């Protein structure tokens, strides 16, 4: 649906040239969303998909094992959109302290994303509201180390930024000037807290994501934090009991349409086209997460069956296998530390797991050997190699 522009332009001088910066109107849109039957149906399907995804957390024997790795997959994907070259294996090797040849700047950036999400979820669990203060805290963790450390972590920007292009004059989009950021973000916070009126949570997440990306309140990290906010909002509002929905893969796969739709909202007020895309993203992504959880559950059950044929050694091998579900790249030393087993026992267990075809040694050396729970990683890696 075509509407008037969803905000207004102001002329700013930045980097030696004058450009028009866009200041968005506050949410909700003054012209209400037109809920055609097709769009309403898509949102109903998205909510059903979220319900199925949420039920997975009650069906898995240990949701924390799934989440530990699933969060890291999301960190890799969300950072890939911003141009990092770190893979999931790179991140796991870095966390293991085995990082020769790993792009350290990139992997530190991905590791900071994991820490930022953990911080946000912990604060929500403590009863802290999803607010500007929490956004700044999360941003401070996200950019606190590595390349972002000089980009004012945890603070709204005090200078003009732009998106795309080599300079403001040829940018794809110029967000509001710095002096407008606090006011725009304050109005976004009111919207998140159902002022001036309550908004259904999935619709709120869809609208708020566009608004955050349009304001682009930080010098760096806006894309990653904007995607994180969707998951944090769904968790805060108890739509999801666990942080199991991440839209980065869908946005990465449909990157061109994603950016075109954001711009169409700003210029033409076509919220309906964006909401259609967003609902599809939620439905597809929730389905993929359920399918990933099912595949991992089936794999680990099959492997348990193989291990249980070992007889007396099965108990120690199962302990090692459980740690590998949380850390599918591991050394004998790290496994001994996490299981409490003697390293000689761990080495014997790894020998059993190799013979059963469950783990594979990645190194060919006597010391600092690294073992991979290959089948587990293969399932998690699907989609992370898209262009």
Notable features of this structure?
single chain, 387 residues, Arc Repressor Mutant, subunit A, 2 domains, three-stranded antiparallel β-sheet, two-stranded antiparallel ribbon, 15 helices, 5 strands, globular
Compact description:
The protein has 387 residues and is mainly α.
Describe the 3D structure.
- With 387 residues, the chain is mainly α.
- The protein folds into two domains: 284 residues, Orthogonal Bundle (Fic-like fold); 71 residues, Arc Repressor Mutant, subunit A (Orthogonal Bundle), CATH 1.10.10.
- It is 59% helix and 6% strand.
- The chain contains 15 helices and five strands.
- A three-stranded antiparallel β-sheet has the order 3-5-4.
- β1 and β2 form a beta hairpin.
- α3 crosses α4.
- The radius of gyration is 23 Å and the shape is globular.
- The mean pLDDT is 92.
- Enumerate the spans where pLDDT stays under 50 for 5 or more consecutive residues: none
Here the CATH topology of the largest domain equals: Fic-like fold
Counting structural domains, the number is: 2
CATH architecture assignment name of the largest domain: Orthogonal Bundle
The pLDDT mean sits at: 92
Strand percentage, roughly? 5-15%
CATH class type of the largest domain: Mainly Alpha
Widest sheet, order of strands = 3-5-4
Report the major sheet.
Answer: 3 strands, antiparallel
- The outline comes out as globular
Radius of gyration: 23 Å
What class would the helix/strand composition place it in? mainly alpha
> Number of helical runs?
15
What is the CATH superfamily of the largest domain? Fido-like domain
Spatial separation of the terminal alpha carbons: 31 Å
The helix/strand series, from N terminus to C terminus, equals: EEHHHHHHHHHHHHEHHEEH
């Amino acid at each position: 649906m075509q509407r008037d522009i969803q905000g207004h332009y102001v002329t700013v001088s930045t980097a030696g040239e004058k450009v028009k910066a866009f200041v968005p109107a506050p949410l909700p849109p003054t012209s209400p969303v037109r809920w055609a039957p097709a769009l309403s149906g898509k949102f109903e399907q998205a909510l059903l998909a979220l319900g199925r995804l949420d039920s997975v957390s009650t069906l898995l024997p240990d949701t924390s094992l799934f989440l530990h790795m699933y969060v890291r997959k999301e960190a890799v994907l969300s950072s890939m959109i911003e141009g990092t070259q770190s893979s999931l294996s790179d991140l796991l090797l870095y966390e293991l302290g085995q990082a020769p040849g790993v792009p350290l700047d990139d992997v530190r950036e991905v590791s900071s994303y994991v820490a930022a999400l953990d911080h946000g979820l912990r604060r929500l669990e403590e009863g802290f509201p999803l607010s500007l203060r929490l956004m700044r805290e999360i941003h401070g963790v996200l950019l606190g180390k590595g390349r972002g450390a000089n980009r004012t972590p945890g603070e709204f920007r005090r200078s003009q930024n732009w998106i795309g292009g080599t300079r403001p004059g040829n940018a794809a989009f110029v967000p509001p000037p710095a002096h407008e950021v606090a006011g725009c973000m304050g109005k976004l916070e009111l919207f998140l807290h159902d002022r001036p009126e309550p908004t259904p949570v999935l619709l709120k997440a869809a609208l708020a994501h566009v608004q955050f990306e349009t304001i682009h309140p930080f010098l760096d990290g806006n894309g990653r934090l904007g995607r994180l906010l969707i998951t944090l909002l769904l968790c805060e509002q108890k739509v999801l009991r666990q942080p199991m929905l991440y839209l980065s893969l869908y946005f990465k796969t449909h990157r061109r349409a994603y950016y075109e739709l954001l711009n169409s909202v700003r210029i033409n007020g076509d919220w309906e086209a964006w909401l259609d895309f967003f609902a599809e993203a939620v439905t597809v992504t929730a389905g993929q997460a359920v399918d990933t959880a099912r595949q991992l559950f089936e794999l680990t059950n099959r492997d348990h069956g193989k291990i249980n044929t070992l007889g007396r050694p099965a108990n120690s091998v199962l302990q090692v296998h459980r740690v590998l579900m949380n850390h599918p790249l591991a050394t004998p030393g790290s496994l001994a530390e996490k299981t409490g087993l003697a390293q000689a026992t761990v080495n014997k267990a790894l020998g059993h797991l190799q013979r059963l075809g469950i783990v594979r040694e990645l190194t060919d050396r006597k010391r600092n050997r690294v073992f991979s729970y290959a089948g587990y990683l293969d399932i998690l890696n699907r989609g992370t190699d898209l262009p």
